[in-house]
Specification:
about 700 residues; alpha+beta; Nucleotidyltransferase, domain 5; Immunoglobulin-like; 4 domains; 5-stranded mixed β-sheet; globular; ATPase_NBD; ATP-binding; ATP binding; Hsp_70_fam
Length: about 700
């Protein structure tokens, strides 16, 4: 078998016999080497500061160690390595290519990355845009010939740094460590699929970034890339543009390139694996399956894992998102890693690497008969159609299948009482259409006017149609910075609405700015002595009456927020639909790539010590134990009796760590999340923010 290795700036991906090689439980290996340790462990040991520029530096020993780890994983999973193909950017000088080939061993050969991507297009002339973590590269390819190539000195890692610079004013420390860069990368990925994301700061606070503002951050560099595509493609009469690399998921990229070139733009459905799949096609006399289809994993043991249906590939023994395939049979468990030739701490010796490239007498695992796979899919489809929506009480494990995901214990229960502040919440009075003054804790004095409010089923892009049971409130404000410096933040971050029970509403992924007029970009700052029009949307349940528009922050040291009374009545008497998957306080449930057990604590004084909520509010604590099948960004929310979703606050629970924002694959974690809820607001469930913007489909544990 031929092992194909795509050595990327951020991650290295490998394929053997048409199946992705899983390394440490993931279908990729971070391209990081630190003190002889490789991959995710290297990044963790260096606290996010490990050598992310390995591809640029190209140290032969480090590249050899990285490739050795991939080879070990391929052989551990039942693979017989007979030859090796490594990929490299077009235009690399021979001496750099030779470093890769030498590191891979005597049976290795090299293939340019864009040639691999274009392999499935025969002799058609195409433009390959590789928008990965390193410099974005544009290459014209016909067959296996590179006609022209050029790179932009900007890439996905630079996008991450732009996000860090955007949130830097919110930092309490002047340093931005590797964890913040990782949070920025996660936020970038979320913004490719959702309308907004929270960038988690090192002190566990979060800054919201919506897609419109994100696209403004990167717009100039995306324009440069589109111009480069036009320049490279001009002389060659290309028929299409192929987008690959992790950043190709950004909708702005395909849209802008299509506008500038006038060519059809195809974004690979699995851009992170496009190079390795194409290179695999080049190793075969003929492709027997659709080379563009997302590949299955390299299965370990006596059976092949089922291929994923959509989204990132899953490692053997992991389950796809049940919303995509609720009854997909899990793959077999991976065998224990071989210790031969390995040093402690994930090191692989050069001797072990040289031995690993020799052919070994290993039996190739048999694949499941096609008829069985089809039967399983039909059973899954029937269950989806006829099963209805019902609570999920955990996952059955098929005979011979993998064990359930490891489970962390729920944080210890602590006896206590309710924590309620019975004082009446205070506000600074305002009125629609009348300017009111607000002294912001940042040192600015604003003159704020709410000029209009209306309801809508469909909001302007990027929000579009509201989910079932919800509606949009479209808000219009005029803000003047009468005193103080430039205010370099999204003004909408200071806006919320208040329901009839005194609950602040600002639903995640259902809140943000829109253009006030066609062609007018949303305001990203308020200049010193300047003024801006601010237009935004807030998603609220149709069963929720809205009593006021708010401007300001909740802080004992700040002026009480401005309150502009409005009268927006409810238009239905039942709550928005909810996808119930389990019960708070009940058994663990596996759903949407997570195994979670949650508990709702309405008497949390034992966790909170002397902390006091805002006037008119009470504290509620969620205890949770979570394990994810893959790296996931997790946000925990409360749901009220009308379907409104409530965000947590930055408070620390005594004896219970805060839940991390990002979960590592198959690493059980537990922790607590603190919420400040209006006294008269009933809590009916705990909801995890989903992968899709439709809040009615996010998994909820009924209280």
């Amino acid at each position: 078998m031929t092992l194909v290795i795509d050595f990327g700036t951020v991650n290295t991906v490998a394929m053997l016999d048409g199946r992705l090689v899983t390394v440490d439980g993931a279908p990729w290996l971070p391209s990081v080497v630190h003190d002889g340790v490789v991959g995710a462990d290297a990044a963790a040991l260096a606290h996010g500061q490990a050598a992310r520029d390995l591809k640029e530096r190209l140290d032969p020993d480090e590249v050899r160690a990285l490739f050795a780890r991939v080879l070990d994983a391929a052989r551990d999973q039942g693979g017989v390595v007979g030859a090796i193909v490594v990929t490299h950017p077009a235009g690399w000088p021979p001496e750099r290519v030779e470093v890769l080939v030498s590191a891979a061993g005597p049976m290795a050969r090299a293939v340019p990355e864009p040639v691999a991507v274009a392999a499935v297009h025969g002799d058609e002339t195409v433009l390959v845009v590789d928008a990965g973590g390193g410099p974005w590269q544009v290459t014209a390819v016909r067959g296996q010939d590179v006609l022209a190539s050029s790179a932009l000195p900007f890439g996905g890692n630079d996008v991450d740094r732009l996000i860090v610079e955007r949130v830097r004013p919110s930092l309490r420390s002047v340093t931005a460590d590797g964890a913040l860069l990782e949070s920025a990368r996660t936020g970038k990925e979320l913004l490719s699929r959702h309308d907004s994301a929270e960038i988690v700061l090192p002190d566990h606070r979060a800054v919201r970034l919506d897609r419109a503002e994100f696209e403004r951050l990167v717009s100039a560099d995306v324009d440069r890339l589109a111009a480069l595509v036009s320049e490279v493609g001009g002389p060659v009469s290309a028929g299409r543009v192929l987008l690959v690399g992790g950043s190709s998921r950004m909708p702005l990229l395909a849209r802008r390139i299509g506008e500038v070139t006038g060519l059809p733009v195809t974004t690979d459905p699995e851009p992170e694996t496009a190079v390795v799949r194409g290179a695999h096609v080049l190793t075969r006399p003929a492709a027997l399956e659709d080379p563009l289809a997302p590949p299955p994993q390299l299965a370990a043991g006596p059976g092949a894992a089922s291929p994923p249906f959509s989204g990132p590939p899953f490692a053997a023994g992991q389950r796809p998102d049940p919303m995509d395939d609720p009854l997909a049979p899990p793959g077999p468990p991976a065998p224990p890693p071989s210790s031969a030739g390995n040093e402690p701490g994930g090191r692989t010796t050069a001797t072990a690497f040289e031995a690993s490239v020799r052919p070994a007498a290993t039996t190739v695992p048999r694949r499941r008969p096609l008829a069985l796979v089809i039967l399983l899919l039909l059973v899954a489809a029937a269950a989806v159609v006829f099963g209805g929506e019902r609570p999920v009480g955990g996952n059955p494990v098929a005979a011979g299948g993998p064990p359930p995901l490891p489970e962390a214990p729920v944080p210890p229960a602590v006896d206590g009482n309710e924590v309620i502040n019975g004082e009446v919440a205070t506000f600074t009075s305002g009125a629609l259409g009348v300017a009111a003054e607000y002294r912001h804790p940042a040192g600015n004095t604003f003159e704020v006017t709410v000029t209009g409010i209306e309801t809508a089923v469909t909001a302007p892009q990027p929000y579009l149609e509201a989910p079932d049971g919800f509606r949009w409130l479209v808000l219009r404000l005029h803000v003047v910075n009468t005193e103080g410096p430039d205010f370099p933040h999204d003004p909408m971050e200071n806006v919320a609405v208040l329901d009839d029970r005194g609950q602040w509403l600002r639903q995640p992924y259902g809140y943000g700015q829109i253009a006030c007029a066609e062609g007018a970009p949303p305001a990203t700052r308020i200049p010193a002595e300047g003024e801006v029009d601010v237009c935004g949307v807030v998603s609220v349940p149709e069963a929720t009456p809205v009593a006021a528009v708010l401007f300001g922050v909740r802080s004992p040291e700040a002026q009480a927020p401005l309150r502009f009374p409005v009268d927006v009545p409810a238009v239905r008497d039942r709550a928005a639909p909810t996808r119930v998957v389990g019960t708070a306080g009940g058994p663990a449930v596996t759903v949407d790539g997570l195994r979670a057990r949650v508990d709702l604590v309405l008497t949390p004084s034992g966790y909170l010590g002397t902390q006091v909520p805002a006037p008119g509010h009470r504290f509620v604590v969620v205890r949770a134990a979570i394990t994810a099948t893959g790296q996931r960004h997790v946000t925990v929310l409360l749901r009220d009796d009308r379907g409104a979703l409530l965000s947590g606050i930055v408070e620390v629970a005594t004896g219970c760590p805060p839940l991390p924002a990002t979960l590592a694959p198959e690493e059980p974690v537990y922790g607590c999340h603190v919420f400040e809820v209006a006294v008269d607001t009933p809590v009916t469930g705990v909801t995890f923010l989903g992968r899709r913007p439709d809040a009615t489909r996010w998994p909820t544990w009924r209280a």
